[in-house]
Write a structure and sequence with these properties.
The protein is an alpha/beta fold. The protein has a domain at 2-116 and 187-213: Rossmann fold. The protein is built from nine helices and eight strands. The longest helix is centred in the C-terminal third of the chain and has 23 residues, at 162-184. Its main location: cytoplasm.
């Protein structure tokens, strides 16, 4: 089984990816892991990626796509199948992935898309607060400090402020929608309701995967 998992920040993609990998024995392929492995193994593309990263520059698509192809060509992919996480990030990368999979004789069986209303994600992601003295982390809605706490005793990181979260969600929606449209045209997308208990999300994921197998 070869799968791609997608979802906006805060949708629980990482949690569900870990459960899928454990349950189905898939090779978990994330861009961060691939880059670290390619650099550690000093592959030609890994060293090239490192040169860009050391210079504080973005790694070009052709290098990223090449590193992904190198990873997909490894023996464990044929044995286990894979769950691709965090790639592709652009429509151009999706087209490159299509070509690389075709070159390797690998079929993509499905795209799991964990859906949550962005307004709910905004609440989820922008609710984190940190106690100024202790550094302890809380959430205004899901894990508030005990009693009637004084908001002046807490602060938010810039990344957690509602305006920053809203921008991040907008960017991810704009990037992700063309990719989803691309895979919907191939009839590969399985939409999963993410605004429910973690175990219920996972049950829906398993049902979607079973439907792909049949």
């Amino acid at each position: 089984m070869n799968l791609l998992i997608m979802g906006l920040p805060g949708a629980g993609k990482g949690t569900q990816a870990a459960k899928l990998v454990e349950n189905y024995g898939l090779a978990h392929i994330s861009t961060g892991d691939m880059f670290r492995a390619a650099i550690a193994n000093e592959t030609e593309l890994g060293l090239l990626a490192k040169s860009y990263m050391d210079g504080g520059n973005l790694v070009p698509d052709e290098v990223t796509n090449g590193i992904v192809k190198e990873r997909l060509a490894q023996d464990d992919i044929k044995e286990k199948g894979f769950l691709l996480d965090g790639y592709p990030r652009t429509l151009e990368q999706a087209h490159a992935l299509d070509q690389n999979l075709a070159d390797l004789g690998i079929n993509l069986d499905g795209v799991i898309n964990i859906e949550i209303d962005p307004s709910k994600l905004l609440e989820r992601l922008s609710g984190r607060i940190i106690h100024k003295q202790t550094g302890e982390t809380f959430h205004k809605v899901f894990n508030p400090p005990a009693g009637d706490y004084n908001e002046d005793d807490y602060y938010q990181r810039e990344d957690d402020k509602p305006e920053s979260v809203a921008r991040r969600l907008e960017v991810n929606i704009a990037q992700g929608q063309p990719i989803l449209d691309h895979y919907r045209a191939k009839n590969l997308v399985q939409d999963i309701e993410g605004d429910q208990d973690i175990e219920l999300v996972f049950e829906d994921l398993k049902k979607a995967i079973e439907s792909l197998k049949s």
